Structures are given as structure tokens and as C-alpha cells.
Amino acid sequence: MKKHIPNTITCCNLISGCIATYFAFLGQYPMALLFIVIGAVFDFFDGMSARLLHVSSPIGKELDSLADCITFGFAPSAIVFSYLCTFHIHWPFIPFLAFIMAAFSALRLAKFNLDERQAMGFIGLPTPANALFWGSLIVGLEESGSFVAANNWWAILLMLFYSCYLLIAEIPMFALKFKTWGWKGNEIKYIFIATCIPLLLFFDISGIAIIIAWYVALSLIANRLSPTLHS
Q: Comparing C-alpha atoms, which of 10, 92, 16 is closest to residue 59?
């Protein structure tokens, strides 16, 4: 019976992604973001439960990627698509470009499954981080109304294309995994953790998007200072 627990949790992740997509198409971005966050929680606990119960399986690995493709690929793409539809754009095909991100997310997940270098870190931007960035960014922008007023839909597209690049880029990015709890070797991780709470308190929901951008920037800094800081 216990061997089915991780897969059940993974399916809850997938269902959360489906619900997030539904709210995204309705233009209810806060609810869409909420279910992406719920999906991320399930995504965290399915791997943990598999390790604790010692029931990891190839099927679970494939199912996890399929669920992630929905929750962290299609759902954020639907959010961006729905948001772009609120602009008065002369070319009606523009909003559909948002689904390029779903394709790059799937490619990222496929590469992750085959890449043995990502035990203690990541190569490229993880799909959950990308999904949280877009969900929180769109919620923040809609609440402020600044981008809608300026009609800067092209800025959204530029950021979209850049995030697609980051998903598959050969750029090492640190993970919050610790071999030891000391400062040495964990400098970037502790700096990142220490700055997350102030950013959330000051910027509210938009702070999540800023934290993800800060995560990418810190990873680039770590790579430049020392190729071992993110390991």
C-alpha cells in the first residue's frame, strides 16, 4: 500500500495544476497562483515520501515529470496567455506565444530526467521557480495596473523569451541542499535565505517574483566568483 503514496501525492500535484489552469483562463490569477503553490507543496512531498518509504520507481519519476509539465509548464503559460489577452494588441496571435513556455518547460523536465549532474544543484532554472515567478509577477502587475495602463505587452514577451532560455540554459544554479550547516561553502545559500523574508514583507506577492530573479542573479554571481559555491 505504501508504494502508492508518492504517486498519489504526485497526482495531487497534477490536479492542482489543472485547477490552476482553469483559474488562469478565467483571469483569476491569485487563485491560479495559489494552486501552483499547492502543486509545489505536493511536488516537494512526493519526492520526500518516496525517499522515506524507500519506494522510488521509474513510473514515479515519469509521473512526476508529467505532473510538473502541467503545474509548472502549462498553468503559468495559461496565466501569461490570459493576461496578454487583456491588452489591445493589433496581432491576435501574440497571446498564443505564451505557450512557448510550456514547450520549454517540458524540454527542461526531459533534460533533467537524463542529466546526472543535478544531484546537489540545478542546470538551468527549475520549472517550479519559473512558474512561481510568472504567477506572482502577473498577480502583482494586475493589482498595480501599471503594465496594463502603459500597454507594454512587448516587455512581457521579452521576459517570457528570456525565462524560456533560462529553463534550458547550461547555467549552474544552486539548490537549498546542505552537506554541512557551516557558513563556508554555503555563503550564497544563507545570503539568499536571509533576503527572502524582507523581500516578501516589503513587496508582498510580487516579492516572490523578485526572489526568483534574485535567485538567478545570485547563481550567476556564484558561478563567476567560484564554480564550487553553488555545489
A: 10
Q: Is 91 exposed, middle or buried (0-12, 13-18, 19+ CB in 10 A)?
A: exposed
From CA 159, how far away is CA 147, in angstroms rounded? 13
Torsion of CA 32, 38, 44, 49, to 10 degrees: -140
pLDDT value of residue 187 = 82
Distance of alpha carbon 168 from alpha carbon 149, whole angstroms: 33
DSSP states of 60-125? HHHHHHHHHHIIIIIHHHHHHHHHHTTS--SSTTGGGGGGHHHHHHHHHHHHHHH-TT-SSEEES-
Residue 172 is inside which H or E element, if any?
strand 172-174
Q: How far is CA 200 from the centre of its chain?
A: 17
The vertex-97 CA angle with 96 and 101, nearest 5°, equals 115
Point out the residues of the chain with pLDDT beneath 50: 149, 228-231
Is the pTM higher than 0.90? The answer reads no
Q: Give Dmax over CA atoms of the chain in angstroms.
A: 56
**Please, are residues 1 and 17 in contact by the beta-carbon 8 Å criterion?**
no
